[in-house]
């Protein structure tokens, strides 16, 4: 049980894919103008990651070593297609907001990275917890970045206006350059926090 | 002709793939440490992107669309790209060992470069014809290479700068990219497709 908890928690804190490993940056920067989009993207990627981790882990004895990467990619692409269709059918607003970044989950480095580094060698249940942890760590990072960008750039949080009509939104945070700057500052901040509390 | 020329300008400057559209951030952060590697990666991306877009466009129009297999788009495209990268690597090693020496180590990395898949998908989604898709792919790749080279130039100097401890490494790189992106915002609205 302890082992599972460890697999789960390391993705959120110790090995957070965004703040510690700097993986999967493209969607992190691109879709985080609104908190809703950040959360949606995070959950979509989590769903793909959990499913692909479980399937790859259960097939690990059957996948030949030399062609494992193409095999992983096919599994991941299949789940991405499923998520793509589900979003299109049930969440068309979110689907349009995320645009081409939904199919691009397939080249998200986190997912292939976990398949290669974890799920390809370990039992199913552990891979499930690993996928869940990493996915939620990714979602959390996206939520933090998008919250900052939405509050500063639009003056709202999940679409609810926080300030009065006198509030002048800071365009920089909604613009692409704001994404880079917010993420750079957050990385510096997490570096300080991790050092202070010596989380390693 | 006018459309082609404006597309070149738009996808290199106005809608720069890295700095405005956020495609291919991983290689942008990963291989922009030295000018040499940045050049190698850039050339490899231009090469692969042009070929990949050409092939995926043909597959979409002549295989997926007529048979109603659009739902296989993501799976097909990523496999085509992965296969193509492998093929380019093998062919290059035989035909031009010098070019292979330069591009070799960057080729496998391109499979997971989201810019390549993004160009292939967007070319189809925007309804470009074959020539336009090819121009789009090359312009996007040139824009990517340009951003990579500018970044590499800055980072080579940044190495020598006295950055505060927690900002060192990726944090300062991202903030630099942010300022660079701010500069590119100046092109915004100059031309639209």
What's this entry about, in short?
Chain A has 200 residues and is mostly helical. Helix content of chain A is 69%, strand content 2%. Chain A has helices at 2-12, 25-30, 35-58, 68-90, 92-98, 109-119, 124-154, 171-174, 176-196; strands spanning 156-157, 160-161.
What structural category characterises the helix and strand content of chain B? mainly alpha
**Total domains of chain B, how many?**
1
Taken as a percent bin, the fraction of beta residues of chain A is under 5%
> What is the overall pLDDT average of chain A?
90
How widely separated are the two ends of chain A?
Answer: 22 Å
Quaternary structure classification: heterodimer
The major β-sheet of chain A equals: 2 strands, antiparallel
| Biggest pleated-sheet summary of chain B | none
Number of helices of chain B: 9
Uncertain stretches of 5 or more adjacent residues of chain A: none
Order of H and E elements of chain A? HHHHHHHEEHH
Overall helicity of chain A: 55-70%
Which shape of chain B, going by the Cα principal axes? globular
> Can you count the helices of chain A?
9
Compute the number of structural domains of chain A.
1
Number of strands of chain B: 0
Secondary-structure-based class of chain A equals: mainly alpha
Radius of gyration of chain B: 18 Å
- In N-to-C order, the SSE pattern of chain B is HHHHHHHHH
Strand content of chain B: under 5%
Could you please describe the fold and organization of this structure?
By secondary structure, chain A is mainly α. Chain A has one domain (2-196). Chain A contains nine helices and two strands. Chain A has helices at 2-12, 25-30, 35-58, 68-90, 92-98, 109-119, 124-154, 171-174, 176-196, and strands spanning 156-157, 160-161. A two-stranded antiparallel ribbon of chain A has the order 1-2. In chain A, helix 3 runs antiparallel to helix 7 (124-154). Chain A is globular. Chain B has one domain (19-187). Chain B is 72% helix and 0% strand. Chain B has helices at residues 2-14, 25-30, 35-64, 73-95, 97-103, 107-110, 114-125, 130-158, 170-184. The longest helix of chain B is centred in the N-terminal third of the chain and has 30 residues, at 35-64. At the A-B interface, helix 2, helix 4 and helix 9 of A face helix 2, helix 4, helix 7 and helix 9 of B.
